[in-house]
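Field notebook, page 310. I keep forgetting to write these up properly, so this time I am using the form the group agreed on. The chain and the ligand, uridine-5'-diphosphate, are recorded exactly as supplied. Prediction of the bound pose follows.
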Amino acid sequence: MHAVITGGAGFLGSHLADALIARDFKVTVIDNLITGQLRNLSHLEGNPNLTFIQHDVADAFDVEGAVDFIFHFASPASPAEFKRIPVEVLRCGSFATHHGLDLAERKGATFFLASTSEVYGDPIVHPQPETYWGNVNSVGPRACYDEGKRYAEAATVTYRDYRGVQVRIARFFNTYGPRMRMDDGRVVPNFIRQALMGEPLTIYGEGHQTRSFGYYEDILDGVVRLALSDYQDPVNFGTHQEMTMLQFAEAVSEAVGIPCRTVHYPAAEDDPKQRHPDIQRAYEVLGWQPTTSLMEGLRKTVEYYRAELK
Ligand code: UDP
């Protein structure tokens, strides 16, 4: 089996490369390193099953030989990046998705889209099932990502329905773990870095907004199951570990082993107030359920950042 992973030097993409190589896949990673990092793949250096191509997948690309899967994982995913490089975010959702779908059509490969809970926007249905259409601001500060991913889903099902391309669509809720860039601005790296450095944890707004955190190993187990299934509609991947950011600050402090100290910053514009996946479909279709507790996942992630800061 040969899999192409766009964004394969990023957090989830590089873990996916590991998971596929462990299953005897040949993997071609295409990444322009705008947010990905080569060091996420450095342990695979010299491995004949990995090929790395530095390229922006929003520009046309081709891959030699037979291809069985194209995993489109390329995209900045942190709200801080939506402000810094919004056009690049848009191009990942739009042009890059088309290039991946076109490649899938040419090669007869399965196209796997890494989508997101952001397609639900600031949801008014809880928990969010795949059948919920969402509540998205198309002209707000998160629009480049939310609407980019919604466009990517629309493109994916259009190629499925009108071009006969095999597709998979995974909607990831907040996923965390080692290899998230420490400075990417998201709450997990921010809180862990701040706790390790003895700084107060920065809560945006009141801290009553909720997220449900999933450990990358569980989420990738779902990715592999979905890829190898024949299910062509969207599937949520996340956990029922929903908590407020105030509670999450407590949990991170406990995982680091320090008393919790927080400081409040202004609320982020259009910040979803509540996010919690309905994961029944993943269970019914794939037999998938997350198994890692928040404290277990956080402790492993803290160890990674501790080593990074040395
Ligand atoms: N957040 C926070 N402090 C931080 C970073 C983020 O309170 O230092 C909040 C943010 O406002 C949001 C939640 O944490 O409500 C998750 O933010 P993140 O950037 O990780 O991703 P999102 O789920 O919003 O895409």
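OBSERVATIONS:
- The CA atoms of residues 30 and 53 lie 5 Å apart.
- The mean pLDDT is 98.
FOLLOW-UP: compare against the apo run.
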